[in-house]
Amino acid sequence: MGYTRTNAKDIISAGFDPKKTFIFSDYEFMGGAFYRNISRFSKRVTFNVAKAVFGFDGSSNIGKIHFPSIQGATSFATSFPHIFGEDEKKTAKIPCLIPCAIDQDPYFRLTRDCAVSLKYAKPSLVHMRFLDALQGPGSKMSASDDTSAIFMKDTAKEIKNKVNKYAFSGGRETVEEHREKGGNPDVDVAYQYLQFFLEDDEELAKIRAEYSSGKLLTGELKAICIAKLQEYVGAFQDRRAKVTDEIVKDFMAIRPLEWQGNPKVPRADLVVPVVKADEAAADGSAEGGEKMTKNQLKKLLKEQQIAAKKAEKAKQKEETK
């Protein structure tokens, strides 16, 4: 449980709202509705399927073989009655969105297959791209190799030294050649990191263009990257220092959550008014007096959300001038 609570502190430090967040340990949360779904899941996966999906063989222990059912059960709203309610007929329809790295994909592809059999909503995935190791494309970060990555515990000085010394460069061998031919941002680690940590897309596009043309040198690009990393890691460390064991306990307490929607995203029931059948028949909610289909409503909602984001971005730019 030591690693669990340490990891929980890191997660909390990313800025999660305790009113909307439930962090749990399989050891402590196991039982009840959660274990019921684990049992249902495990009944639907044969050993042959597990071998085909995960590459298990005769030397694989039963813990490895059984774990996908635990991982998969977390995707179902019915596993969390304290959040979504006790009525499985209703909660079974609630979908789950899972941001994860590509290495987790097999677990949730299998989960989607099981969801059909269980008559649950299929989970959807957002695949996260791995952050490159400092040594560049093809290399991997390692906790045992301090030079392979920027760690969240690194000081501002350590971040600067690591980026300057170890970050793979897409620049040319000489300044003259770089000015003439430009650098390659697609392999340059400093630029790759900026894709994650620089929020301004226009500024990122400008940096890419200047680096590719040779106007921006490798050292200058690294300096921009260093400043952004120092800012991000420093802010994280400040938040991390304030996370106490009591705060972790609050996040891991079994309790109802308070979800009033995201204030930055228009609510569907406000953007797309709910029209009753008799009103739709009388007035019409689409061209030609016909009721709008679900796809039309979704398209309209998406257009409204895009417009709202553009308006918010324009407002922020105006305020900074």
TrEMBL record:
GO terms for biological process: tryptophanyl-tRNA aminoacylation. It is an enzyme of class 6 (ligase). The keyword Metal-binding does not apply. GO terms for molecular function: ATP binding; tryptophan-tRNA ligase activity. One of its GO terms (cellular component) is cytoplasm. It comes from the Eukaryota. Residues 294-321 form a coiled coil. Transmembrane segments: none annotated. Keywords: Aminoacyl-tRNA synthetase, ATP-binding, Coiled coil, Ligase, Nucleotide-binding, Protein biosynthesis. Its EC number is 6.1.1.2. The keyword Nucleotide-binding applies. SUPFAM superfamilies: Nucleotidylyl transferase. Gene3D superfamilies: HUPs, Tyrosyl-Transfer RNA Synthetase. Pfam families: tRNA-synt_1b. PANTHER family: TRYPTOPHAN--TRNA LIGASE, CYTOPLASMIC, TRYPTOPHANYL-TRNA SYNTHETASE. Belongs to the class-I aminoacyl-tRNA synthetase family. This is Tryptophan--tRNA ligase, cytoplasmic. It comes from Trichoderma gamsii. The lineage of its organism: Eukaryota, Fungi, Dikarya, Ascomycota, Pezizomycotina.
